[in-house]
Amino acid sequence: MSDDKDSIFQKMWKREGFMAELRAVNAIAIKQWKVEFSYPLSVLWFIVMPFLWFIPMLIAGQAVVGGSESAALGELVGTTDWLSYIAIGTAYTGLAMSMFWGTGMSFRREQSAGTLETLMTTPMKRSTIVWGSMMHNLQHGGLGVLLQLVAAVLFFGVTINAWGILPALAIVALSIIALQGIVFALTCVVLLAKQGWMIIEFISSALMLVAPMAYPIAVLHPMLQYVSVASPLTWTVESFRGFLMYGFAAPGIMTAIVALLILDVIYVVIGILMFRYTERYVRRKGALSQF
Fold this sequence. Notes:
Blueprint: H1 2-14, H2 18-37, H3 40-65, H4 71-77, H5 82-104, H6 106-113, H7 116-120, H8 126-156, H9 165-193, H10 197-210, H11 222-229, H12 232-246, H13 253-285
Helix pairs in contact: 2-8, 3-5, 3-8, 5-8, 5-9, 5-10, 5-12, 8-9, 9-12, 9-13, 12-13
């Protein structure tokens, strides 16, 4: 029996390559789902959360505009349908927040549970822990996007162009790469500062502020417009909403795709390099167990 156990452990340590890391990513994502479903109130919050963000904007829009069309919005972005503009744009909020908070704080959660050191000594790459958390939060936040869009169509009369669904999903895939680069940087802050929630709150709030989810970037201060152009959220929301509203005829799509591809490379390279250096630094200092 002892020889069988030794043989199993030896096989585990010899596992390597993309498929081995992918299985580890899937296992981490499943583990996190099991933890969340152990707390029914968290599931209820997940269902209600997207509507708590969207409905106040709907009420405010109705009060300010006084109808279903906005001439001012039409002059800025080419559509007077402010309801669809806001409903589709803010649908991405849940996914972005899930990525920033859920993935950015993944190491802190494992540390609080007392499992971080165990995970860090398993036969997988350290970055796989972050990718596994990303996979869970992509599924989690993606379901939130779906819930809000379905509710917007069924209850608020929002119309979605069916031809734009698949390209909108492709845009989400592109955005996840760039956002993951930002998340790697946030993970570095958590590893170094432990209580890094203040930095995550600041960065996520700043990116949400300059993203055109509920308003076009043209209404921002010129300085904030420059920041907005450098944010992957800006190009993601613009193209995601464009595809779902206009299909392949959406304006400015090629510009958004090229911008996202460039930002993918920049943010992922910087984020991964920062993570590798920080993770090695923290392990060398023996600070993983420090709470």
